[in-house]
Amino acid sequence: MLAQSPGDAPPPTPHLTILNTYLKPKLLTSLEKRVKRKTVVAMKELSQQIQETKCRRERLLKDSRQLLEEKYRVQAENQLFMEYLRKNKEQCEKKQEELWKQYVQECGEIERERQELASRYNQRNAALQAQLLQGRKTQKDLKQQLQALKPVYKIKEGQDVKIQTLEKEQEKVRSETATKDREAHFQFLREKALMEKELQEWHLMELGQINTTGLTRKYKALALAAKQAHSEFCGSLHRENQQLRKELQQLSQEYGRLDAVRSQLEKHRQLAKEQQWYLEALTRGRQRLQAERERHHRGHNPRLKEQRASKTMLSTKSKASSK
Predict the structure, then answer these.
(1) Per the confidence metrics, is the pTM higher than 0.85?
(2) Where are stretches of biased composition, namely Polar residues (predicted)?
(3) What is the pLDDT of residue 63?
(4) What is the DSSP string of 147-216?
(5) How many helices and strands (H and E) does the chain possess?
């Protein structure tokens, strides 16, 4: 600092001015000069520190003013924000009260609906129980009727076998009748040929070419035999026809009676099948209603929901009041 030029040196401070005025260099000893130089250096350093301190103080004052302005601005903003929070809190509390009232109302409606559903379920369950008892009773009656119809069914089976046997016998009789008809027809043709031959002989006899005494007797015997054979053949055919008609009428009556029994058995079997379907449908409906009731009690219990919602609302209100 002693080597600085006079143009670069800072202006003398009041302390240096006083020191130079009262401590002139010409009047000082070497020791005093050395002390003066050290004092001047120390005072210059002190003056520089003072200047730096003033600059720092000005900067700090400026920063303090800025901080105070920022503080006032932040306080104003905080006041606006607190006002906004207060209004928002009031709106939230009002909304919570409205939601709570709505929740209580909905819980009441759900409870009423649950009671109505429970009442309807009990009514339907009672109706299904009555129908189930009626169905079981009907099934028991049908089983008894089926047990009673088993002998009839066995009789029907025996009659079916008998009908088949009679049909086979009827076919056999028809085939035998056709065979007898053919044999009788062949016999008739043979007798006709013989009679034509005899008639020719009779014609010759009338012409006087043959002796008529033996032929007349022979002709009468043959005519009587032919008449008797024809009468017996027609009678046997008539009797066989009457017997076949009688058997056919009996078979028709038996078939009609068996067909009526078969229709009755078929109706009873269909009724038993429908009753079984009805009972199975009732059982499935009862199981489905029971499952729906259990699922309703597990997943839609309004009391549990109300307790959980009450705990949530109370915790929310306690937090809001603590803030």
Answers:
(1) no
(2) 310-323
(3) 92
(4) HHHHHHHHHHHHHHHHHHHHHHHHHHHHHHHHHHHHHHHHHHHHHHHHHHHHHHHHHHHHTTSS-HHHHH
(5) 4, 0
Query: What is the model's pLDDT at position 3?
Result: 39
Q: Give the pLDDT score at 259.
A: 77
Instruction: Tell me the C-alpha to C-alpha distance, in Å, between residue 73 and each of 68, 78, 83, 240, 315.
Output: 8, 8, 15, 137, 36
* CB contact at 8 A, 107 and 305: yes
Query: Residue 118 and residue 97: Cα distance in Å, rounded?
Result: 31
Using a 10 angstrom Cβ sphere, with 0-12 exposed, 13-18 middle and 19 or more buried, the burial of residue 16 is: middle
pLDDT for 56 equals 92
Greatest pairwise CA separation for the chain in angstroms = 232
47 contacts: CB under 8 Å, gap ≥ 6 = 10, 13, 15
In terms of phi and psi (left: phi > 0; alpha: psi -120 to 50; beta: otherwise), the region of 208 is left
Long-range CB pairs of 287-293 (<8 Å, 24+ gap) are 289/121, 289/124, 289/125, 289/128, 293/121
pLDDT of residue 193: 79
Residue located via tokens 């009673």: 148
pLDDT at res. 100? 93
Give CA separation, 61 vs 51, 135, 241, in Å: 15, 103, 151
d(CA 40, CA 13) in angstroms, rounded, equals 10
Q: Give every residue of the chain whose pLDDT is below 70, as ranges.
A: 1-28, 202-216, 218-219, 297-323
> What is the structure's pLDDT at 295?
78
Separation of alpha carbons 262 and 153, rounded Å? 8
CB atoms within 10 A of CB 204: 13
For helices 30-206 and 302-322, what crossing angle results, to 10°?
Answer: 170
CA-to-CA dists, residue 257 to 160, 162, 253, 318, angstroms: 11, 13, 6, 91
